[in-house]
Amino acid sequence: MSGTSTPEVPTEYTTTVVIGSGLPGLAVASELSRRGVSSIVVEGLLSQPSDPSRRSPLPDSSDRGERNDLLRLLQGYAASHELDIRRSTFACGVSRTSGKSAPALQLDPHSGALEARTARVPSISRDSAQRWVIRTERGLLVADTVVLTGCAQNQMRRLLRSLGIAAGQNAVAILNAIGLYLVGVADLLAPSTREIIRQAKVAGNAIASSGRTAVA
Asked: Each residue of 119-167: pLDDT tens digit?
């Protein structure tokens, strides 16, 4: 009697996965490209539209023209440098590689809350280093670092609590230490275009300087 084999899940390796293909995501991908760091940009976290009162805040009207101009420039850069932008691909889940249970970051489609939940994560790493696994409808993306864009302050606080990290000056440093970066973080108002670019440069420089490289 012949046994049945489980089909392999398509898996790709890269240095960084950027979640969000808007201005913050393109800004980070461009910064990484200039520093020779490979990345894959997906459209965003898979979620259903939430209540209008929970939608992402809009940028100030005085900043909108500058933002649109910069977005066009970044789109042109992405096209001319053939950056890997996958606008039809969504992240269904984000977790850390481990043979045991590990925290998985998930976006609640109803509340819009980003939480860490225990999930079984496949043993994918080919060495002892932990890596991030981004589940998509097409397979798995395995990366050393993840950049989450457009995360609101209340989502970040919820995420920190679920990860057991106390909010404070060291919270961002702790997230960065495990390879998770936030760009385009907003509270009541969306960050200005200049603030988004500043955050993208900081994240790009930190990732490039970390010495992390994609697994072949």
From this structure: 555 555 455 567 888 889 889 999 999 999 976 666 677 777 766 777 6
CATH classification of 11-47+55-209 is 3.30.70.580, yes or no? no
- The whole-angstrom separation of Cα 42 and Cα 201 is 19
Question: Tell me: the pLDDT tens digits for 86-97?
Answer: 999 998 888 877
Tokens of 156: 């970040």
| Residue 149, C-beta contacts closer than 8 angstroms, at least 6 positions apart | 18, 19, 20, 22, 24, 25, 28, 182, 183, 184
- What is the chain's Cα-based Rg? 17
The token pair at 30 is: 């461009």
* 3 state DSSP class of 179: coil
What's this model's pTM, rounded to 2 decimal places?
A: 0.78
